[in-house]
Amino acid sequence: MPHQDAASGSTGAEEAATRKTAFDVKIEKYEAAAKINIIKEVRAVTDLGLKEAKELVEKAPVVVRSGLPKEEAEALAAKLKAAGVAVAL
Predict the structure, then answer these.
(1) pLDDT tens track for 13-37
(2) What is the pTM of this model?
(3) How far, in Å, CA of 19 to CA of 5, rounded?
């Protein structure tokens, strides 16, 4: 019986990994020279004002948006990378 439990445990883990539907976009670090562009991008994708967006960016590493579908999270990550951010999903 222990063999069956181990097999079902790995199958459950694989299924959970393939079912991930919500992703978080996290700023790991950013280039200081690009800070203004990064703040503009963060404001564009959130409902934050200038001051709040600036404070959020300065807290890096920090999650910008969470619970996004994979396609939307990847699109946001690409925009932030283009602005000079090291991003993690």
Answers:
(1) 444 455 667 898 999 998 888 999 9
(2) 0.69
(3) 21
